[in-house]
Specification:
The complex is a heterotetramer of chains A (563), B (329), C (191) and D (390). Chain A has 563 residues and is of the alpha/beta class. Chain A folds into 4 domains: 12-33 and 507-561, Alpha-Beta Plaits, CATH 3.30.70; 37-118 and 458-500, Alpha-helical ferredoxin (Fumarate Reductase Iron-sulfur Protein, Chain B, domain 2); 129-222 and 379-439, FAD/NAD(P)-binding domain (3-Layer(bba) Sandwich), CATH 3.50.50; 225-377, FAD/NAD(P)-binding domain (3-Layer(bba) Sandwich). Chain A has 17 helices and 19 strands. A 5-stranded parallel sheet of chain A has the order 4-3-2-5-16, sandwiched between helices. Chain B starts with 7 loop residues before the first helix and ends in a 26-residue tail after the last helix. Chain B is of the alpha/beta class. In chain B, strands 2-1-3-4-6-5-7-8 form an 8-stranded mixed sheet, with helices on both faces. Chain B has helices at residues 8-11, 32-44, 56-61, 81-95, 107-112, 115-123, 174-179, 194-206, 220-224, 230-240, 265-269, 283-303; strands at residues 48-52, 73-75, 100-106, 128-134, 185-190, 211-216, 246-249, 252-256. Chain D is 38% helix and 18% strand. Chain D contains 12 helices and 16 strands. Chain D has helices at 7-17, 32-43, 57-69, 80-95, 120-124, 138-155, 180-186, 213-242, 268-278, 298-304, 325-334, 358-366; strands spanning 3-6, 22-25, 50-53, 74-78, 101-106, 131-134, 159-164, 172-175, 203-204, 250-253, 260-264, 285-290, 292-294, 310-315, 342-347, 375-377. The longest helix of chain D has 30 residues, at 213-242. Classes of the chains: A alpha/beta (563), B alpha/beta (329), C alpha/beta (191), D alpha/beta (390). Chains in contact: A-B, A-D, B-D, C-D. At the C-D interface, helix 1 and strand 2 of C face strand 1, strand 8 and helix 9 of D. Strand 2 (73-75) of chain B pairs parallel with strand 9 of chain D.
């Protein structure tokens, strides 16, 4: 029966639903998840945004579980990582970046304190067994992820204890042994068969290992310092930086020098300089080709050492000579009494290649009792000669697969292009995935590179300004021994960081789209939907005005033209 | 734990907030008035009677046989919403029903032709919340100037030309006039600050007696901006001081929403076609631009809108997004 | 049908006088009608009101043009043009005045009587409102209605002491005039 | 024993007996006494209602519209300029089919300013979709007020009760006020099915497009025609209850041999009756009183005019450029009737001019000519007019 008019033409409630305004639409809103910059920037593959969301909800356990999906040793990385995540954080362009690094440490320590276990179960006994050589960060991470993926692991280590340079090269004031031990202990307890005191080339041969295991991960690290001399001249009592550091960390002894010049700009140089200070050396100089990191210094010109560490070194009285090179050793007989430094800078030559230029007339003398190079390390070739590339490293593709060596993978320092702990952790994870794929005859597709959410796509009106917290530091005058320098954030500070997080490219269920739609064409769902949001577009009525996209704080909604 | 995206048909009427204005109305894309109506009703809930003056809201929401309203609603005429609401309230009183009466009027139906009815309703102290959705011109008839149209704005009856720079007169200060009735509560609000708007509606409802809410509601068509920018424009009006968010009780200011860092009015004006003529290279244009800036500065000073510190005074989170939004009851 | 026209000044209770008279008649089971000569006058202006009393229902609603009696609440009105217009020959005029009727200089073709109504009202009510006294005297003169009827009408407006004072005023005023002096005229007319 | 009451007072008492829950009004002469009396009844606690003293007639009508829409029995009263100021709302009330009652104390419309009685105000809103009843005297005004509420609530149409300003509103005469019991028995509590109610949240006063508007208008047109039956029923039932006849649609009386009819509305009818009685030498005249002006009860009018050669229409209003409203409407109706009377139209008593007994004779005399003037002001005094205006 056709519609009939009502008395006085009254209408019944909500009958407008019969009129589908969706037909007015020329563009439609769509949920679009973009990677958060912090996630993209983390070499270990941690999704900081994901665990910050849980931190805001004060579910620290779940937050930690999110971290260990990628990185099994957050308490370690939460101390020693150079945290590129924070450099990438969009919040940095608003007020100050989220203190992701400190949050990670807080969660890592929380886990140790609470005795939380990894969310995984040991692999079945009959599962294939993989060989991992080297229990440094790369090897440990690889072993851990192999277990997560249901594979058995034999983990070989030359030294009596696992940890690699975490144990041998990082001073305790940065990474307390106890923390390291407990995280490694928890990691090894996942079902890994740990075989200490097995050195490749001495106790193991590559060929045997290749026989015994369907796949191998070689997380061998670097052992030897780069050869160093100034026009062929080297001090008779030359001490290599890394050796000295390792020796000192082991024995706690060091020759009695009054003044030392450390040559280098990396973490080893800085660690060594600070150690020397602690050991009572009055004058500690660091001679660096590059500049002390500062906002106005371009990244390529910054000292590779962790900025935080450099700052602390300066606090502790280490003198850093920027943009300097050593031109000459001052010798009394064969004994070093100083160096001649010169101002240097890397500049492009006519062909555009960067060359280091020494500026004549800027020479200065620096009188020191000892000169210690700390300019990086290379691998001990013993037992792996056939695998080394022309730079003396193993190389490796994105997954760490060593070129032309079926079933051989590597990661960390041994690659020759990754020098950071978090990079090593990431290498271990990728290799583990590659190994599992190899065994299950699955080809690995590198994930498509998705550009992280740009700052411009955020709607900043919805975020209150607020500064990041900084943990308490040990007073300089107390930094004499190995007491940890950096403190940990308070629970409330950590929660505040969760609140400050922009949730770049991810729905944070703030209700803006739902609240502001003039057509009530955004509906709120009870649970998180498959597309990751908490809302459903009601395309029957959406007129495509674009308000929701405009007002989404997180840049999670995009407008696309109707087909 | 993720779930299949639910079917809108099932979800639509099962939303955690009451939706008194359903989808299917015929407002322009990005309509501010529609947002105002839905936000107000979210705060009132279903136990209200609504009187609606003639205007966009009424026309786009009830083309017979359809109605987008899910509350009892009546439209009578352009100029009598205040009186119709008063009659409804009198009836409820006589019947001993304690349902609240809401009146909706645009700026035309409130500032101008409906002013007498509004004043009478306020003076007789009817227990009515009168909501003016202010889109600053007669939009329903195609953008003619009203006494709410801002100074120098272009409308079809205040066009800029050789001899004129848009509207010659100032925007009527309706809130002061309303507050001068010595009513218990009169406030301004903006669609750009939904929590603040809802809070003010709830405050008004809690009061026995006449209350007034003046809501700045952008009109993409009449103001000449993209519908996607309605909220941004409304926010700029507040942040520049052009539309201060304030609360008055018994005629005295009892609350203001601070502006963290007042922005130049040009930022607000430049994004709207109705002010485009103010940006031509012309002395008169520059003068009017300064004039509007001065008006904004005056508002900021008069109501003490600037604060100190990152978030100087309490915006009550009106402009902060919260993870998780509104929890399910 | 008895037709009376009452003249007074705005504010003197002219309409009230007309209403009282009609109310008294209706109270007696008669038919009656009272209405003012509608105007926009203000206090002090000369005004008039009309009363019709009859044994049968009254339908006509035109103004009273040829009254049987005039009641004039203020002697200063007697020479205002039109006041006596239309009064039937030999019709009675009751004037509120301290002076004897002869001194008022009215047409000898009419029967004129005066009553110091204001003084009486002042005396009994403490207010100079002459209408009640005049009505009492009028009823006493014409016997158109018993005085009780007037008191009943007054009782619809006043209570207690004020009513009591009015009752006394009515009796006093009635004694000021020769009871039934105008009666036969009325009989003659209604015959 | 009837009470002696001024018309306005009697109407106010009748309104109170009907127990409206909301009364809204704005004072205007000559309606003022009605509002004043209602206010006094409320002040004395003898009448329990929400009395809304509005700031204009426009709001008075709007308030009762809102009140009735919300389910309350509602009442208002006005006159003249007030009615015209209300006009927009009057159309709205009937268009929305909202039942309520309005007393119109009929008065002339400015300019020139004139506060006295005629019926120009009612004529000005004759197409507003209201039921319009005209009362002959105050007793009928009282009885019609009670009937009006029942008619309104049964038809869901507004009813305007017209009483001549001053002539009735300011005249004291004997009135039989009905008992509260009788009124309650006659007028059950108002139950408005379409009332605004959160339990059934309908939308009133929607926007109706050309696709539907003619049907809505037709429905109102039919509803108003159909109201005749309710008007008659109300008069019949009321008479049965209180034993007092009021008019229904049309009243006619006169000697059977009368070939001339005089038709009028309102209180002038009484004067014409008296005039006829007072002048036995006049030709026999049938007096026809139109009590119900809207809906215009054509069948009843035809019946009342049966056998007449001539029909004289006396109106208390004038339609410039046309003549008389009623005259024109009746001429139009009778135009195609074979035995139709010749129709003479006169305006009389405009702006409160006294209508004396002689009016009847003058009307008869003025309408004797074979080709009648279409329309004339009967009591015109031409010598008062400048030459060019005669």
């Amino acid at each position: 029966m056709s519609t009939q008019i009502t008395r006085g033409a009254y209408a019944l409630p909500g009958t407008a639903l019969a009129f589908k305004t969706g037909t007015w639409r020329t563009q439609r809103p769509r949920h679009l998840h973009s990677p958060a910059p912090c996630h993209g920037a983390c070499p270990a593959g941690e999704d900081a945004q994901a665990y910050l969301a849980l931190v805001e909800e004060e579910d620290f356990h779940a937050a930690w579980q999110t971290i260990v999906q990628a990185n099994p040793i957050p308490s370690v990385t939460g101390r020693v990582c150079h945290h590129p995540c924070e450099a990438a954080c969009n919040r940095g362009r608003y007020d100050s970046p989220i203190a992701i690094h400190h949050v990670e440490r807080f969660l890592g320590d929380q886990a140790l304190r609470e005795g939380w276990d990894y969310p995984l179960s040991p692999p079945p006994a009959e599962a294939p067994r993989i060989g991992v050589v080297g229990a440094g960060p790369a090897g440990l991470a690889c072993a851990y992820h192999l277990i997560r993926l249901g594979l058995n692991v034999d983990l070989f280590e030359a030294l009596p204890l696992a940890g690699g340079l975490l144990r041998t090269a990082i001073p305790e004031y940065r990474l307390p042994k106890d923390t390291l031990d407990r995280e490694i202990e928890r990691l090894l307890a996942t079902g890994i068969r740990f075989r200490p005191n097995h050195r490749l080339g001495r106790d193991l041969s590559l060929d045997e290992l290749r026989q015994d295991y369907p796949a191998l991960f070689l997380g061998l690290g670097t052992q030897r310092s780069r050869p160093w001399s100034i026009d062929g001249a080297t001090p008779s009592d030359l001490r290599e930086g890394l050796d000295l550091l390792q020796e000192y960390l082991e024995m706690g002894r060091i020759p009695e020098w009054r003044s030392v010049a450390v040559i280098g700009a990396g973490n080893t140089a800085i660690d060594l300089a600070r150690v020397l200070k602690r050991a009572g050396v009055e004058e500690v100089h660091v001679i660096s080709h590059k500049a002390i990191p500062a906002p106005d210094v371009p990244p390529e010109d910054r000292m590779p050492a962790i900025e935080r560490e450099i700052r602390q070194a300066l606090e502790e009285g280490v003198r850093i000579h920027e943009h300097r090179g050593v031109q000459r050793l001052l010798l009394r007989g064969e004994r070093v009494i100083g160096v001649e430094m010169v101002h240097m800078k890397k500049l492009p030559d006519p062909s555009g290649r960067l060359r280091r230029i020494a500026f004549e007339g800027t020479e200065t003398l620096l009188h020191v009792e000892q000169v210690i190079p700390a300019i990086g390390q290379i691998m001990d070739p013993e037992g792996i000669e056939p695998l080394l590339n022309r730079w003396g490293f193993l190389g490796g593709d994105r997954w760490g697969a060593i070129p032309d060596q079926a079933g051989l993978f590597t990661g960390g320092d041994a690659r020759g292009d990754h020098g950071m702990v978090s990079e090593a952790v990431g290498d271990g994870r990728l290799a583990a995935e590659a190994i599992q794929a190899l065994l299950s005859r699955r080809s690995l597709e590198p994930p498509e590179e998705r550009t992280p959410l740009a700052f411009e796509h955020l709607n900043l009106h919805y975020f209150e300004p607020g500064q990041r917290p900084e943990p308490a530091l040990l007073p300089v005058e107390e930094r004499t021994g190995f007491q940890e320098v950096e403190g940990v954030l308070a629970r409330s500070q950590v929660h505040a960081e969760g609140v400050r997080c922009f949730s770049c490219g991810e729905c944070m269920a703030c209700d803006n789209c739902w609240t502001l739609c003039p057509d009530s064409a955004v509906l709120k769902a009870r649970e998180r939907c498959q597309d990751g949001s908490h809302y459903v577009f009601d395309y029957d009525y959406c007129k495509g005005c674009g308000l929701c996209a405009e007002e989404c704080p997180c840049g999670y909604i995009e407008m696309v033209a109707e087909g | 734990m993720d779930h299949q995206c639910p079917d809108p048909d099932r979800l639509r009427l099962r939303q955690p907030r009451f939706q008194g204005l359903t989808s299917g109305h015929r407002a322009c894309a990005g309509c501010g008035a529609a947002i105002t109506a839905r936000l107000v009703l979210e705060a009132t809930g279903p136990d209200v009677l609504v009187a609606n003056a003639t205007g966009c809201l009424e026309v786009f929401s009830t083309p017979w046989p359809e109605s987008a309203w899910r509350v009892p609603w009546i439209h009578s005429l352009f100029e009598n919403a205040g009186s119709v609401a008063a009659g409804m309230e009198a009836a409820l009183k006589a019947q001993g029903r304690d349902t609240k009466v809401i009146a909706f009027g645009g700026d035309g139906g409130t500032f101008d032709i409906g002013f007498r009815a509004l004043s009478g309703m306020l003076e007789r102290y009817h227990n009515v919340l009168y909501v003016c959705y202010d889109n600053e011109a007669y939009m329903n008839t195609g953008v003619q100037r009203s006494s709410s149209t801002p100074h120098a704005a272009r409308t079809t009856t205040s066009p800029p030309g050789k001899a004129r720079m848009g509207k010659r007169h100032l925007k009527k200060d309706i809130l002061s006039i309303v507050a001068a009735h010595h009513i218990p509560y009169a406030a301004t609000a903006s669609v750009a600050y939904p929590p603040d708007l809802r809070k003010k509606v709830r405050r008004a409802l809690a009061i026995e007696g006449p209350t007034f809410l003046h809501v700045h509601s952008p009109c993409p068509l009449g103001w000449g901006h993209d519908g996607a920018l309605s909220i941004e424009i409304a926010r700029l009006a507040v942040e520049t001081g052009m539309f201060p968010l304030i609360e008055l009780e018994r005629g005295g200011v009892t609350g203001v929403m601070p502006i963290r860092n007042p922005r130049p009015v040009a930022e607000y004006l430049r994004r709207q076609a109705r002010f485009r003529h103010l940006f031509q290279d012309d002395a008169k244009a520059r003068e009017e631009l300064e004039h509007l800036q001065a008006i904004a500065d005056h508002n900021i000073e008069f109501y003490g809108l600037t604060g100190h510190g990152p978030d100087a005074l309490d915006t009550e989170g009106a402009d902060t997004a919260h993870r998780g939004g509104m929890r399910w009851a | 049908m008895l037709e009376i026209r009452i003249h007074g000044r705005g504010g003197q209770g002219n309409v009230v006088a007309a209403y009282l008279l009609a109310t008294a008649a209706i109270g007696e089971g008669r038919h009656a009608q009272a209405f003012p000569a509608f105007g926009a006058e203000r206090r002090g202006a000369p005004v008039a009101a009309f009363v019709r009393i009859a044994a049968h229902p009254i339908h006509r609603r035109d103004q009273v043009r040829s009254p049987d009696f005039l009641i004039i609440q203020d002697q200063t009105l007697v020479h205002v043009p039109g006041v006596t217009t239309g009064l039937k020959p030999g019709g009675g005029i009751l004037v509120n005045s301290e002076r004897p009727a002869a001194e008022l200089g009215l047409d000898p073709g009419f029967v004129t009587l005066t009553l110091p109504a204001t003084r009486l009202a002042q005396e009994y009510l403490g207010r100079p409102v002459p209408n009640t006294a005049l009505l009492a005297a009028f009823l006493s003169l014409t016997g158109a209605l018993p005085l009780e009827a007037l008191i009943e009408a007054l009782a619809q407006r006043f209570k207690g002491d004020i009513l009591e004072r009015n009752r006394k005023l009515v009796e006093a005023a009635a004694h000021e005039v020769p009871a039934g002096a105008w009666k036969e005229d009325e009989d003659a007319r209604s015959a | 024993m009837p009470a002696a009451l001024e018309g306005s007072q009697a109407i106010a008492r009748a309104v109170a007996l009907c127990r409206p829950q909301v009364v809204a009004a704005y004072p205007i002469t000559p309606q003022t006494h009605i509002v004043e009396n209602i206010s006094k009844l409320v002040a004395d606690g003898r009448f329990d209602c929400e009395l809304v003293s509005v700031e204009s007639e426009f709001s008075a009508a709007s308030v009762v519209l809102g009140a009735a829409a919300a389910g309350a029995r509602a009442y208002t009263a006005s006159s003249s300029q007030g009615i015209l100021l209300m006009t927009e709302v009057l159309y709205d009330i009937s268009g929305m089919r909202i039942p309520l009652v309005l007393t119109c104390a009929n008065r002339a419309v400015s300019a020139p300013l004139n506060i006295w009685n005629d019926q120009q105000d009612a004529m000005a809103v004759r197409d507003s979709g209201w039921i319009m009843l005209f009362c002959a005297d105050n007793q009928e005004a009282v009885d019609t007020t009670v009937q009006a509420f029942r008619i309104a609530e049964r038809t869901e149409l507004p009813v305007m009760v017209c009483v001549d300003g001053f002539t009735l509103t300011h005249t004291l005469e004997p009135i039989d006020l009905p008992s509260q019991e009788d009124v309650d028995a006659f007028l059950p509590p108002f139950e408005f099915e379409r009332r605004l109610d959160p339990a059934r949240p309908i939308s009133q006063g929607t926007l109706v497009s050309p696709e539907w508007f003619p049907e809505v208008r037709h429905a109102n047109y039919q509803a108003l025609l159909a109201a005749e039956a309710e008007i008659e029923a109300a008069a019949r039932d009321w008479a049965g209850l209180v034993g007092r006849e009021t008019g229904a649609l049309v009243e006619a009386d006169g000697p059977g041999e009368a070939r001339t009819g005089v038709l009028c509305m309102g209180s002038i009818h009484g004067t014409l009756e008296a005039a006829r009685a007072a002048a036995p030498d006049l030709e026999p005249v049938r007096l026809i009183r139109l009590r119900c002006f809207r809906p215009l009860p054509l069948a009843a009018i035809e019946a009342a005019c049966a056998g007449l050669d001539r029909l004289i229409v006396l109106e208390r209003a004038i339609a410039p450029g046309l003549g008389g409203v009623l005259t024109t409407e009746l001429r139009a109706f009778f135009a195609d009737r074979a035995d139709a009377p010749r129709i003479y139209g006169f305006a009389v008593g405009l702006g409160g001019r006294d209508v004396p007994l002689e009016t009847l004779g003058r009307a008869l005399a003025s309408s004797a000519a074979d080709n009648p003037r279409h329309f004339a002001v009967l009591d015109l005094e031409p010598e008062k007019l400048p030459e060019e205006d005669r």
